[in-house]
Amino acid sequence: MKIEALLDELFPVGHSIKNAQSILTGFGSTGKGEIAVMGTTDHLAVGVEAALILADFVLGIIKESPGRPILMLVDTQGQRLSKRDELLGINGYLAHVAKCLELARQRGHQLITLIYSEAVSGGFLAFGMMADEIHTLAEAKVRVMNLPAMARITKLPLEQLQELSSTSPSFAPGIENFIKLGGVQTVWQEPLAEQLDQVVGLKHGGDQRRRNGFMRHGRKLAYPIAQRVKEE
Amino acid sequence: MSDLSGIHRGHSYYEATARSRISKLLDSNSFRELLGPAERITSPHLESLGQPCSFNDGIIIGSGRLNDLPVLIASQEGGFMGGAVGEVHGAKLTGLLERAVDERPAAVLLLLESGGVRLHEANAGLIAISEVIRALLVTRDAGIPVLGLIGGAYGCFGGMGIVARCCDALIINEEGRLGLSGPDVIETTMGVEEFDSTDRALVWRTVGGKHRYLLGEVQCLVEDDIAAFRVAAIENIDKAQPLSLESLQQEHLALSQRLANYGQCQDGINIWEKMGIDDPQELPLMNIPSFLVVVENHVQGKL
Known about the structure:
By secondary structure, chain A is α/β, with parallel strands linked by helices. Chain A has helices spanning 3-10, 48-64, 83-88, 90-106, 121-125, 147-154, 158-165, 175-181, 192-199, 209-215, 222-231, and strands spanning 18-20, 23-30, 33-40, 44-46, 70-79, 111-120, 133-137, 141-143, 186-188. The mean pLDDT of chain A is 94.
């Protein structure tokens, strides 16, 4: 779905979301009041500049709109791969975004993510994955890496990976797999504004992904192992 | 530079195994492992791919004492799949960080050596690293400092590079490398003209310990000696930096200034020159004590 159409669907009453260099920031009206909206579009490769703009928006919301829910709209092909970004310490810029979002959560801002196009590894990790709940559109794509590249790097035959991807949700790309693993909560159906209204204002008790992955039989070990380490 | 007199020196951190790092870093015989190899908790995903497994899934966790203070500790084993994070590996780390909130040790020490997500279980690994990031920040919010130590052969990359920069403080040796996308990943994807991963000097100028120290990203640059890491960890153990709006605004300013000052630079040497260091091309050749003296007034504001 095109970003303009998506914003109109999410906020039929209106919004003031700007798109500057494929980075979205602004506010939208929902049935539960106005919420802050930030995100990326055009499959943005997230580099140091984008990370700073996103972090700046979060810090501004914490300061000027205490407690307001934040919706993150995700469309990223991952982090920007460049020597310059590494030289500047891009991992620290992404960690900064994650820290700003965590501070927002601690101060009572609900964090909601909607993956509407692509969500890939690094760009997704420091940003959309920090949310209390993560939803997707049916046509969205979530992955770490495609299977041919994975086959090349792991030196495993592509056929073997393809075969296993039908039985194990752990490595093949796809929303269904991320749902089973607890990494994605639900797939949103239209009308999207109604779906958004249903989640705005929900309270959360910590990171639920391990438990969800366990209950959906996708990640059977993460939950019990972390519990054992915690309690033993 | 830390005073190392009276401490048993001579054990390379770079060359040590994950287990040996723990035993030489902590007070003698104080380490108690959680979910040790006898439990044989291995990765079911590697097994189904017919890959070799490890009885600790590439990470050793437990509790111990550092200078008589109680700590929780995790050590990634670069020798097993480059320390890559899978479902079990990540869950051990997340569980340890959550345990810290209940147990309230003086600090959590993370001996980081990892290429990031383990591709053989990529989706589970990605979510696991996200869980580690959240658990780490909750631990910090509870006022328990998390210290990261970096200095192994595989460096600290991918999602674990983000995890590292979420810590209260970092300690690194010259051989330690810290970044997001490894040089080989950039070369494979973007071409050798973007980043020649076989040019070791270039790699170190870009992601190596000295450059990270100059940028103010790590609190201590130490010699490649586990004893030196121990001294630095003791020095930083009570320096918790809780997240606050003020501290993050300060970090924001520093990161913005870094981008404004050095955003046009294409090589570490250009950045060091702009910092006002004379003969920047000499920095990679210097030993740690001389290096620390030369750069003393040029290190960027600590983040």
